[in-house]
Amino acid sequence: MKSSAMRDLMAVTARPEVISLAGGLPDTSTFPPDTFAAVAQRIASESCAKALQYGPTDGLGETKDCIAEVMAAEGMPLDREDAIVTTGGQQVIDLVTKTLIDPGDVVIAEGPTYPGAVPVFLSYQAEVVQIEMDSSGMRIDLLEETLGRLDREGRRPKFIYTVPTFQNPAGVSMSLSRRRRLVEIAHERELLVLEDNPYGLLRYEGDGLPPLYALDGGVYVMYLGTFSKILSPGIRLGWVAAPPPVLEKINLGKQGTDLCTSTLSQLMVQAYFERGNWRDYVDSLTDVYRKRRDTMLDALAEHFPRQAEWTRPGGGLFIWATLPDFIDTTDLLARALRDNVAFVPGEAAFLDGRGRSSMRLNFSGSNEESIREGIRRIGEVVTEQVELYGTLTGERRAVPSSEPQAAGEVVHMPTPAERARRAKG
Amino acid sequence: MQASAARVAVLKGGRSLERQVSLRSGARVEDALTRLGHEVVPIDVGLDLIRRVRDLRPDVAFIAMHGRDGEDGTVQELLEILDVPYTGSGVLACVRSTDKVLAKHLMIEAGIPTPEFFAFNETAFRELGAAEALGAIEERLDFPIVVKPSSQGSALGIKFARSAADVPAALVAAFSYDSKVLLERHVDGRDLAVSILDGEPLPVVEAVPQGDEFYDFQARYEIGRTSFVCPAELPQGATEQAHELALRTYRLLGCNAFARVDLMLDGAGELTVLEANPIPGLTETSLLPQAAEAAGISFDQLVARILELALDRTAAT
């Protein structure tokens, strides 16, 4: 979170009476308590002393076997020695940035990018160059343009950070041809890529696309995985798979940060995976989230004015909505909070002040009734502002959108020139 | 006089958009009160406020809230009903200060210079066609124009309109915070704050924005983007004049115990009053504690004084 105004506003969103579509929380309410108890019991009786002890910095071998199982489910083979178990996926972003970035070094990211990565990049004083996206993910043509420009300036990015599948916050996935091209570019330019893939298994329709790591074979692609969205964020367990020289450096960094990932959490994952049905729980979550996504899309079509547009994610946790450019979503959040509803203002996903008319909406953390009501309330304040603007300019009128938006260039961020053209038209 | 150990309810947080700052102010006040030997009970203000205050029966409430509810007279009114003494200004002063439009009208009437302005509520635009008057207002005020919500305490919702094209979006933003907004002539100059403690002005603080070609209100609240100079180095006579204007404003609005008055000093050496804050921030980086420090008053002494004034006021009535 960059602006202090937004931080102040976000502090209010945590109040219990607020319907928060702002978080990125998975639903943990359907996890069977019996399973939790059995797993805990098993650790208590079989590995109590081990669970209470430090472990190796790179993680327990047994946990890495579970990680290999998850990666295999998305078509990626993994050897134990190619991965380090981390304290959540967030730690991977921190460790990779800490390992590779000196102040002023360039990181390339999507625009918008994962809001949680922004403070990490800032704290290591990286210069972040954000590449626009469309409905097929990061615009690789623009990436190549940018790499060319950086070349001419004698600068070489340290790595490219991307969430290619069901992106946070945009909710779109990178097309297969762009994935292939990105991996080619990485090889041509010997450029590292950090692929952040928390949501790959939370797919609500269609066929899965191969992760960059599978296409690349772990040569230039560092892979970030997590148990947060397929099991629990509370156990704080993620991992990184990376080429050996990078992995060694990350290992050193982790040693300094926290010695090792919680042994107790690692053993819980191991005991849980030994029960053999982890995919069933992911399937049940997928069913819940699919319904919530559909509910949110229906509510958006019903309650948002036609000047608004939004993405239709095939998986993951988020929808990205963009409003007319005269609405600043940080100010809108202040108004929405009066009606006890919250979202993440788009500026949180940029480091350069863009995204001010967009918002991230989460559909996994609230039930369908709250989603409907939350979107109704946001739609009401948006409509109110569109009408007020119309009154002030004698131009635009809010009309509820009659049909779902075509998945066009909805995450495309207009350039100042385009904005000027739109304003005139 | 050192007040004997009292049971103090520190009211903080709440639903205001300045919740975060308030929590920091509150925490700092709690630490000071504890060091001063008082019994401290923090209350994050919510639906259970009345019940908690009734159960607690505090000797006094220290209101460390900013913005809506805490600074606009609402909590003060409730404490009056509960017959609990509280720190700072009373209901009327809070109402007058928080409503910038009302405060500015009072200033004009009293001959206190304040930047020229026009204020409207949403109804004026929605039902009375006020948009058609925007052109005349713009001509009168000149660009850039400052557009702000009438009652928001911090920098939230304050926009600069550099041209007529910026005005509608700036108004939409300001209306996000309040149903009444004002368009104000922008004063190009130095940003000053005079804090007042028990009717005595403290050294002037100047906020100096770093780098930005155009003053960005956001900068005020971002560490590293604004530096503060206290006491401000001002031209001859300006400090006395700023003190006098701040004090007149403080008295005009009926403030009590403490407050902070924000002023501008333009290139011609003219001072204007922007607004008064009945409960200014009390965090490590806030201006009132900085000004007190410059006057040789430590934070603990400041808190002790504010508490004493609240207790004295009760004793007197």
Write the layout of secondary structure elements.
The complex is a heterodimer of chains A (425) and B (317).
Chain A: H1 4-13, E1 19-20, H2 33-46, H3 48-51, H4 61-73, E2 83-86, H5 88-100, E3 106-111, H6 118-123, E4 127-134, E5 137-138, H7 140-152, E6 159-162, H8 176-189, E7 192-196, H9 212-216, E8 221-226, E9 238-241, H10 244-258, H11 263-274, H12 278-303, E10 309-310, E11 318-322, H13 329-338, E12 341-342, E13 344-345, E14 358-362, H14 368-393, H15 416-424
Parallel strand pairs in A: 1-12, 3-4, 3-6, 6-7, 7-8
Antiparallel strand pairs in A: 2-9, 4-5, 8-9, 10-11, 11-14, 13-14
Helix pairs in contact in A: 1-13, 2-11, 4-11, 5-10, 12-14
Chain B: E1 7-12, H1 19-35, E2 39-44, H2 49-56, E3 60-63, H3 74-82, H4 91-98, H5 100-110, E4 117-121, H6 122-127, H7 134-141, E5 145-149, E6 159-161, H8 167-175, E7 180-185, E8 189-197, E9 200-201, E10 205-209, E11 226-229, H9 238-253, E12 258-266, E13 271-277, H10 287-294, H11 299-316
Parallel strand pairs in B: 1-2, 1-3
Antiparallel strand pairs in B: 4-7, 5-6, 5-7, 8-9, 8-10, 8-12, 10-11, 12-13
Number of DSSP strand runs of chain A: 14
Order of helices and strands of chain B: EHEHEHHHEHHEEHEEEEEHEEHH
Q: Helical element count of chain B?
A: 11
Distance between the termini of chain B: 18 Å
Round the Cα radius of gyration of chain B to an integer and report it: 20 Å
Major sheet details of chain B: 6 strands, antiparallel
Class based on secondary structure composition and strand pairing of chain B: alpha+beta
Tally of contiguous helical segments of chain A: 15
Largest two-chain interface:
A-B, 25 and 32 residues
- How do the helices and strands follow one another from N- to C-terminus of chain A? HEHHHEHEHEEHEHEHEEHHHEEHEEEHH
Q: Name the shape of chain A in a single word.
A: globular
